[in-house]
Amino acid sequence: MAELVKVVVDAMGGDNAPAEPVKASVDAVTERQDIQVILTGKKDIIEKELSKYENYPKDRIQVVHASEVIETAEPPVFAIRKKKDSSIVVGLNMVKKQEADAFVSSGSTGAVLVGGQVLVGRSKGVERPPLAPLIPTKDGVSLLVDCGANVDARPSHLVQFAKMGSIYMENVVGVKNPRVAIVNNGAEEEKGNALVKETFPLLKECEGINFIGSIEARDIPAGYADVIVCEAFVGNVILKLYEGVGATLIDKIKGGMMANFRSKIGALLVKPALKATLKTFDASEHGGAPLLGLKGLVVKTHGSAVAVEIKNAIFQCVQFKQQKINEKIAEQINGETVQPQQ
Amino acid sequence: MAELVKVVVDAMGGDNAPAEPVKASVDAVTERQDIQVILTGKKDIIEKELSKYENYPKDRIQVVHASEVIETAEPPVFAIRKKKDSSIVVGLNMVKKQEADAFVSSGSTGAVLVGGQVLVGRSKGVERPPLAPLIPTKDGVSLLVDCGANVDARPSHLVQFAKMGSIYMENVVGVKNPRVAIVNNGAEEEKGNALVKETFPLLKECEGINFIGSIEARDIPAGYADVIVCEAFVGNVILKLYEGVGATLIDKIKGGMMANFRSKIGALLVKPALKATLKTFDASEHGGAPLLGLKGLVVKTHGSAVAVEIKNAIFQCVQFKQQKINEKIAEQINGETVQPQQ
Fold first, then answer.
1. pLDDT tens digits, A238-280
2. Three-state DSSP string of chain A
């Protein structure tokens, strides 16, 4: 049997804590035998929440007390430094000390990003660990790398994003020979800002990735590439506009369906089928976003994540560990062959 | 009566030329008495197209022959320099020589942008003329400035974009005291890349605009600001992702409605109401994008524009001229009071 993967889950992070992270943990250890979950946060609150569940393998859920909570509005660097007994810092430190393989949190994105880099630390050779969420496309998902805190990135960073993103898509998501594209303001090679123009030839020469050239933002939702490379400011705009356009459009469609009696009847009839369709185009359905290139694994789930998403993020961690993603990243970045651990 | 506004329309530009630009011109002069249209392009083709219409004020449509056509795929700078007898160059030169007030084209965006700057020329004090399309929001439209060719802009450029955008929204679109926001990767003032961090305090201090701070991409479709300021690379990503997410989502919704018999019946009932709603969220419905800060007016309409959009762009030109936008821009940028021309 595969070895037990130990995932720390932040029980205090996100809009739906502690109920949803606790439920996710219970469901995860119930569904799969190869997972151990460590819940960090206020012990009494977590245990009260856990007591709502009966039939689950109790030996595979552990609670580690953390007396503090980092709020979303707190400045991340300051919060990580000051709240040493917060659920985020305690959880990340367990990954740092290799007491756990991965950390999953729906809490402050800033704190998770900063804490991941500062506490867990970068893998050897990795210049900037990018945050890489999966975004929905017409018939699947693409990895958008970077959506993190690395604004004003350099060309060499983007090349590493492309390499790490390819490894993740191939081994965790299961896309063979993933197509890598760089976000550009035109399809032609001579287009771009200074960063893209400098990065383009480097990606073209880069071995071990399947670089297909520029991608215009218009073609991202159509799924023209599997790994979408950009610096974090642009990545943030893409990720958030996805949500924004989707939300406004769905709002307008709902309004349009209520326009008159005829359309109201129609709305009742299409609603169930439509709901199922729209779910496939909801960014929050696609698990968590890994922070790639760290010594351990850190996954950020949506602030509004519910149990099923957090559970999927826990499963992602197992896949990440079992597929030895960090070893593969180290090999790609440094050109070193890492012996698989037994 | 107001003086006649002279608008040059590129009869050869866009996917639907010459039929749609010619129809737009006929409709424009028929609907409004204060417009004269000059069609540029191949004379025989235009006249053949015009001969399909009978009852329109023929004295207010003029044809100016241009033997060449700039194709979309041609490198813009080269095309403008080489094809001196193209419909775009001939049209822009008429604006330059003040033989016309404005130029409207659905042709090559690059050629129109380059030609506008090189041939018509920048207004005194304007550093970079931005392309500023209107994008649909939940209940109206916002101006996205810049979506042009000015990638890697400087803070002073963005401040001018804010000023010019405010004047346009207030006087052409009719939004009183338009809210100006800068695209950022977070709502807090300390967020941003180097460009945004440098620009933010300048916008805060800038007189004559209603600066409301940062806007996250998520809030753009909800209509939180009237003038959305960003550099052109980001503007291009926003504009094209708007289209892309919209198209994919609508595609998926159509698919979802065809899922089963029940939903198919529903789809028939909601279709008319839905179609009307989606029209209001279609970027191409909102006329053309002006190139702001030139000595004359240049408006770019979608490559796929049909007559109604081109006609609306022509009407925009009239509003632009009658509201003396260029005089107001000159006043704002240079602090000069310009005497309105009689």
1. 999 998 988 888 888 888 888 888 888 888 888 888 787 777 7
2. CCCCEEEEEECCCCCCCCHHHHHHHHHHHHHCCCEEEEEEECHHHHHHHHCCCCCCCHHHEEEEECCECCCCCCCHHHHHHHCCCEHHHHHHHHHHCCCCCEEEECCCHHHHHHHHHHHHCECCCCCCCCECCEEECCCCEEEEECCCCCCCCCHHHHHHHHHHHHHHHHHHHCCCCCEEEEEECCCCCCCCCHHHHHHHHHHHHCCCCEEEEEEEHHHCCCCCCCEEECCHHHHHHHHHHHHHHHHHHHHHHHHHHCCCHHHHHHHHHHHHHHHHHHHCCCHHHCCCEEECCECCEEEECCCCCCHHHHHHHHHHHHHHHHCCHHHHHHHHHHCCCCCCCC
- Partners of residue A245 in chain B, C-beta under 8 Å: 221, 241-242, 245-246, 249
For B72-125, what is each residue's pLDDT tens digit?
A: 889 899 999 999 999 999 999 999 999 999 999 999 999 999 999 999 999 999
Binary contact (B244, A218; C-beta < 8 A):
yes
Task: Look over chain B and give the mean of its residue pLDDT values, rounded to a whole number.
Answer: 91
Range B169-177 average pLDDT: 94
| Chain A contact probe: residue of B146, B188, B237 with most A CBs at under 10 A | B237
Flag if B263 and A253 touch (Cβ within 8 Å): no
Mean pLDDT in residue range B237-257: 88
